[in-house]
Amino acid sequence: MSLFFRKRRVLVFGDSHVEALQQALQERGATRRGITIEAFYRKVPAMNGGFRGDTTLDEFKERAQELGPKDMVVSMLMGNFHHMVGMVQHPEPYDFLLPGDDTSPEDGTTLIPYKVLEDFFLRRLSKENEPVRFFRRRTDACVCHLMAPPPKESTKYILQGPQVFLRMHIKERGVSPAPLRQKFWRLQKRVMEQIFADYEVPLIPVPKECLSERGFLREEYSAPDATHANKEYGKLLIKQIEKLVRAQTGKKTSKAMGRRKKLTPKQKGTEAA
Is 1 a domain residue? Predict the structure, then answer.
């Protein structure tokens, strides 16, 4: 079949935030207007035993390597990392300043140097996003990363479904202030921009429709838990992905959307399988 008439495929691989997209696709269907979107939840050991997710990294790699130049790989990995760091109130309240941000630290808090937090996020997120480097180097498809949704402002809403944060004693210690949690999300965005710039992979911002006036996740797009978005948010992602795919039609440069470059023999020998 001619590539011109071939349906374009989009394979999305991520952690728990990918469930919003899966729910939206289940309602709408995977294929529309010549674009098929499939979403896969990375399968990893769960804290309470067993596994969570539906597809291992190795299984997804096999799928991704079947894609052609008109197709796309979308990463949604490590979206909750900033929550794991900043969701639960620390016994000694702290704050930090984002460079270029004009907000003041909370009164009575210990100020943590920005560089300390940035280096910590950079080390951890670089390691956990190595699969994206693989997709960039070993598939013919375009590659991009979707930024995770912003935090929820309401403490009451968060405590309705604290999930994993119960193990971190969130009900006893409380939820960190909303401005601090939002700063951690923005810090993660800045660090991800650094990482994916090195990979030459675009970082796609969240849909503007989901943001409140204060930059938090609007409640109509929130799942009933501490961190995740819902099916309606997933529908926004579908529109966003379809727009990205159509924008790539006719583009020929590798910089347009994270296309693979030819590897040297040395690079082929050092790339992870």
Answer: no
